[in-house]
Write a structure and sequence with these properties.
Elements (H helix, E strand, L loop, with lengths): L1 H17 L1 H6 L5 H6 L1 E2 L2 E2 L3 H6 L5 H25 L1 H40 L1
Antiparallel strand pairs: 1-2
């Protein structure tokens, strides 16, 4: 946890204070911008949580969410190491989620690319 807290403190200083203007000027994408703010008319998955209390608390809520997510990820390590069945089930769930996300992405992509061509083909 000490290593994580050092990383988090460094992240806060660099992203929110030291390089804030450079990141905005060059339109760099950070995890915070991607998840918590609205960029290019796209809202990140934490946007509603962060905007619920207003922009003043958005960074604090993002960092708190990141900390809780890290704790949850670390807690999964213990049962994964000591109980092989838990580890196998966890990996199977991750593979199913990855396969679903990949399949959904490609179905949406092919649908957008093939639909205009298919319509033109059927009209001829």
């Amino acid at each position: 946890m000490l290593a994580y807290l050092i990383w988090q403190a460094t992240y806060i200083v660099v992203i929110f204070f030291w390089r804030k203007e450079r990141i905005r000027e060059r339109s760099y994408n950070t995890a915070y911008l991607y998840l918590a703010e609205e960029t290019n008319n796209k809202r990140g998955m934490l946007y509603s949580m962060c905007s619920a209390l207003g922009p003043r608390y958005c960074k604090l809520l993002y960092m708190a969410w990141h900390f809780v997510y890290t704790i949850g990820s670390l807690l999964i390590g213990y049962p994964s190491f000591h109980y092989p069945t838990f580890s196998v089930v966890l990996i199977a769930i991750m593979l199913m989620v990855a396969a679903y996300n990949g399949a959904t992405y490609y179905m949406d992509l092919f649908n957008r690319q093939l639909t205009p061509n298919t319509i033109v083909y059927h009209q001829q």
